[in-house]
């Protein structure tokens, strides 16, 4: 079975856009691949979270992915900092990563702009750590968004460089896993673009029903159609798109017909949409809260994940140590 791997930054909660995007795809991957999913908590130290926030974020990311159906029996689900082989290999990989190429990375340049008072060395070597995450399991596929493509390119470069430098054939070339058509894009509630945390237009899986109602009722609309079968402006189309994702087909079609007949009442549509979103998120929310409160279960999951991840990582690290010339006296 081919190996696929993805890192999840523990920043913020999952929203329904994440659910129908990354999460759904992970659920498919775990059925068909030797899959590794991990929480990238070393990476998140580059932004200096407080210790309490860091711990809480890791816990919620874990609880949320588990609640959505990520299965620790099927995938290897672990916390990056539970695998000491990663920082050791990262140190070794740093020796063959050059300052110039690291400085030219767009994610580094972005970070310098975003946190000019905290341009730490961890930010500079972020791509080396990410390459290590991937190479340590000799992963073949990495599902990444556009913003991570350059980092993946660097992982390829570092792997090839190592193979070449030590004349070994240790690392396969990791490539982007392309979901193509299967990627569902959920729009936001603010009239344009997709749902996102930084856009402030998201409905989170753990949002209370009241919060969801408020968010949906506030969604951008217009004064309504004036002609039969009129094309929908983006803000309206977005509401229909979300409805198409979370509601029964009949519900969507009912409001669509109302729109086409110029009889739509956005207030009614939004009430229905809020109800359907709540019906969808409520069971997940309950699961998330239950799992997050179950320390024994979380402990079991991360312990098992770390064991499986370390088994694979230690094999690679052993080869890496051998290649560079570390020998036991
Ligand atoms: N850099 C990724 C992000 O910001 C997270 C990540 C860390 C990752 N290590 C990885 C993703 C390895 C894929 C593979 O989203």
Notes on the structure:
- The protein is mainly alpha-helical.
- The chain has two domains: about 5-175 and about 295-325, HUPs (Rossmann fold), CATH 3.40.50; about 210-290, Tyrosyl-Transfer RNA Synthetase, CATH 1.10.240.10.
- Helices cover about 55% and strands about 5% of the residues.
- α1 links the parallel β1 and β2.
- The longest helix has 30 residues, at about 295-325.
- The model has no long low-confidence stretch (mean pLDDT about 95).
- Tryptophan binds near residues 5, 6, 144 and 151.
Topology at a glance:
Blueprint: E1 3-8, H1 16-32, E2 34-39, H2 41-44, H3 51-68, E3 76-79, H4 85-94, H5 99-103, H6 106-114, H7 121-124, H8 126-135, E4 141-142, H9 149-165, E5 175-176, H10 209-217, H11 234-246, H12 249-260, H13 266-292, H14 295-324
Parallel strand pairs: 1-2, 2-3, 4-5
Helix pairs in contact: 3-13, 4-8, 4-14, 8-9, 10-13, 11-13
The structure holds tryptophan (TRP).
Annotated CATH homologous superfamily of the largest domain: HUPs
Give the proportion of residues in helices. Answer: 55-70%
Q: Give the percentage of residues in beta strands.
A: 5-15%
Cα(first) to Cα(last) distance is 37 Å
What structural category characterises the helix and strand content?
mainly alpha
Number of continuous helical runs: 14
Which regions contain 5 or more consecutive residues with pLDDT less than 50? none
Q: What is the CATH class name of the largest domain?
A: Alpha Beta
Strands ordered across the widest β-sheet: 1-2-3
């Amino acid at each position: 079975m081919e190996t696929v791997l993805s890192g999840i930054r523990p920043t913020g909660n999952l929203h329904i856009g994440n659910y129908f995007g990354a999460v759904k795809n992970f659920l498919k991957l775990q059925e068909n691949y030797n899959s590794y999913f991990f929480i990238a908590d070393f990476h998140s130290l580059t932004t200096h979270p407080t210790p309490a926030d860091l711990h809480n974020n890791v816990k919620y990311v874990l609880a949320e992915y588990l609640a959505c159906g990520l299965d620790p029996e099927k995938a290897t689900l672990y916390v990056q900092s539970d695998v000491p082989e990663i920082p050791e290999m990262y140190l070794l990989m740093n020796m063959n990563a050059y300052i110039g190429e690291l400085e030219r990375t767009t994610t580094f340049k972005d970070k310098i702009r975003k946190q000019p008072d905290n341009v730490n060395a961890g930010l500079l070597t972020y791509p080396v750590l990410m390459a290590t995450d991937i190479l340590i399991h000799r992963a073949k596929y990495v599902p990444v968004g556009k913003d991570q493509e350059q980092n993946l390119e660097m992982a390829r470069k570092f792997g090839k460089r190592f193979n070449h430098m030590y004349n070994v054939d240790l690392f396969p070339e990791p490539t982007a896993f392309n979901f193509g058509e299967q990627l569902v894009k959920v729009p936001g509630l603010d009239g344009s673009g997709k749902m996102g945390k930084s856009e402030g237009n998201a409905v989170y899986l753990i949002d209370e029903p009241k919060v969801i109602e408020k968010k949906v009722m506030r969604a951008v609309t217009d004064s309504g159609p004036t002609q039969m079968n009129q094309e929908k402006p983006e803000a309206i189309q977005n509401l229909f798109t979300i409805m198409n994702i979370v509601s029964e087909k009949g519900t969507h079609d009912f409001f669509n017909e109302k729109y086409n007949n110029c009889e739509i009442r956005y207030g009614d549509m939004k009430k229905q949409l809020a109800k359907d979103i709540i019906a969808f998120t409520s069971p997940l929310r309950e699961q998330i809260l239950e799992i997050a409160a179950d320390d024994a279960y979380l402990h079991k999951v991360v312990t098992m994940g770390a064991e499986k991840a370390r088994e694979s990582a230690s094999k690679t690290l052993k080869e890496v140590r051998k290649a560079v010339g570390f020998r036991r006296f």
